[in-house]
């Protein structure tokens, strides 16, 4: 049985038997097939990274310079001018830990939403699983988050941080939540963006709120203090997976730079941080399954829509 993707394009006056199909259909599709074809994934990630810095004088050094300048701007505005950090110890690490997570999420979400439209030439010509493009976007975003992580590790070490297993596990859990959540949303919105380009604008609008909806330029304890008479607000706040991931990464790095880590964790982190993090990862994995089903349902008509 032929699918819409296999139906030939009909051109007036041309013999139908000489026309090629619109796109060759891949024998298998889905996220599992993407990782079976890891060589294609590696090629796509490598070419995307190289194209970003092609023709630039500083090349990959921009990966360090841009996040460092972004961090300086946030730090100057919110710490120096506004004094948002207050009496928090090592507010700079608190801030950069949030920046790393927010950057990883927004790059994955925004780039993943546009990934199918941006790669229309490859999708039409090659029989590859179309999930390849959102996955590659997530990996490219992770790759470009590495310089920010290095900056955070170096700055934390200067301020007295030393690796501890619980903290590193917390940070890994936070990054896992963002990777799964970002990929899930990229799958959902990338195929929707093929049908209606408005979804690309929707993602840009949504990600503008991310910076202010996570405990980055302010501590989580401030949310509890401002809404102490209605404590359920803090619980609703923590339903945001990105906020949970930020807190986990702060547990991994910022807490260890404090002179009294236990007191800082008790004051600025929720007591059930670990259980919430594990539950959030499970929810994000369930969302990834639903996103794959949604993508599989709509991706057959992607070539003709492009």
UniProtKB/TrEMBL annotation:
Membrane topology type: Multi-pass membrane protein
Q: Where is the ABC transmembrane type-2 domain?
A: 58-298
List, alphabetically, the Pfam families matched.
ABC2_membrane (PF01061)
- Cell location: Cell inner membrane; Cell membrane
Per UniProt, the keywords (alphabetical) are: Cell inner membrane, Cell membrane, Membrane, Transmembrane, Transmembrane helix, Transport
Listed transmembrane segments: 57-78, 90-106, 142-161, 168-196, 232-253, 273-295
Q: Does the keyword field hold Membrane?
A: yes
Q: What is this protein called?
A: Transport permease protein
Q: Which organism is it from?
A: Nocardioides aestuarii
């Amino acid at each position: 049985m032929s699918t819409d993707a296999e139906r030939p394009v009909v051109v007036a006056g041309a013999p139908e038997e000489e026309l090629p199909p619109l796109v060759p259909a891949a024998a298998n599709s889905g996220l599992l097939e993407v990782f079976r074809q890891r060589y294609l994934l590696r090629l796509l990630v490598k070419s995307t990274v190289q194209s970003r810095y092609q023709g630039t004088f500083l090349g990959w050094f921009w990966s360090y310079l841009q996040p460092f300048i972004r961090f300086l701007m946030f730090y100057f505005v919110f710490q120096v001018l506004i004094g948002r950090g207050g009496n928090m110890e090592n507010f700079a690490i608190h801030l950069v830990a949030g920046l790393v997570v927010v950057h990883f999420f927004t790059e994955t979400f925004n780039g993943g939403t546009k990934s199918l439209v941006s790669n229309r030439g490859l999708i039409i010509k090659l029989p590859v699983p179309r999930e390849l493009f959102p996955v590659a976007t997530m990996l490219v975003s992770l790759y470009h988050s590495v310089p920010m992580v290095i900056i955070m590790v170096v700055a934390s070490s200067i301020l007295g941080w030393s690796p501890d297993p619980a903290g590193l596990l917390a940070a890994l859990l936070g990054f896992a939540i963002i990777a799964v959540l970002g990929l899930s949303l990229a799958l959902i919105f990338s195929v929707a963006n093929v049908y209606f380009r408005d979804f690309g604008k929707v993602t840009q609008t949504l990600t503008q709120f991310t910076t202010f909806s996570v405990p980055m330029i302010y501590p989580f304890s401030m949310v509890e203090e401002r809404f102490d008479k209605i404590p359920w607000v803090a619980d609703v706040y923590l339903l945001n997976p990105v906020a949970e991931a930020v807190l986990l990464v702060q547990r991994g790095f910022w807490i260890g730079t404090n002179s009294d880590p236990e007191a800082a964790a008790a004051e600025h982190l929720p007591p059930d941080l670990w259980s919430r993090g594990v539950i959030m990862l499970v929810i994000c994995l369930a969302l990834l399954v639903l996103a794959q089903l949604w993508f599989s349902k709509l991706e057959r008509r992607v070539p003709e829509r492009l």
